[in-house]
Please model this.
Amino acid sequence: MTNVAGINCLVLGGGGFIGTNLCNELVRRGALVRGYGRLSKYSSSRRDITWFQAEFNDRVSLARAIEGTEIIFHLIGGSVPESSNKDPIADLASSVIPTLHLLEICRNSSVRKIVFISSGGTVYGPAAPTPTPETAATDPASAYGISKLSIEKYFGLYNHLYNIDYCVLRVANPYGPFQDPNRRQGVISALMTRAMLKQDLEIWGSGEIIRDFIYVDDAVEAIIAASAYGGPCKTFNVGSGRGRSINQVVEDVIRVVKMPGIKVIHRAGRATDVPVSVLDIGLIRQELGWNPQTDWMKGLEAAADWIRGSYI
Model:
């Protein structure tokens, strides 16, 4: 377990799904935590977190939040894959450009490292081999994936020009507590909530597309471990290393929530959905000694328990 006690950490997007879980774990381990962005709607602002409630493009607030920070966790984003293609200019403006401002501020700061949460499901593209290693060609099918990849490249540039240390984590499809079922990203929480409310389950396409799912606690452990990594690698996949079809996910969700007989409706497939996305996690195992620890069904049960307590 990575020791972060006493370290000044800033979590950009700390009120989001992964951000909330990350902030909680950092506090539990004794880090001095600052959160930035919109507050989580599921919990009040913690007294043990210094909060900066501001937009990512607010350079003055961002500079204030960064002052004195040692480690930055960059989880803040502007869109989801489906909506990004409808307005790619807005996606660029809300994610890539503010990240460049972030990097400019960090040039003359006390920041030792930035951990950026990229996307393991969108940066590689439809033709990627399975399982997909970090060395695979990147050919995103969405503006969201292009923005994530652009940010990765800018981190590499600023490392080359100004020696800003960083680590990129290409995270698969995370699930677990604090995932908003109403946001158009996170199929497991959406399916669970609808099933508990006895509503029809809607899935895109035939349901045979395959995805890699990672429980949020395992993702958080990888994120914190990356903040202390000092080796030569800069980019890591973070996933379970195993693929499951959406139809399989639906079956397991129905089993966990104990709602047999729920109707499943198939909608038209989406252009942003690649047929298969499973990550090769051999590199992070080798370099960070990280392995996903959460059993699939136990993770689903924990996610279901949270949804029952928050929505149902």
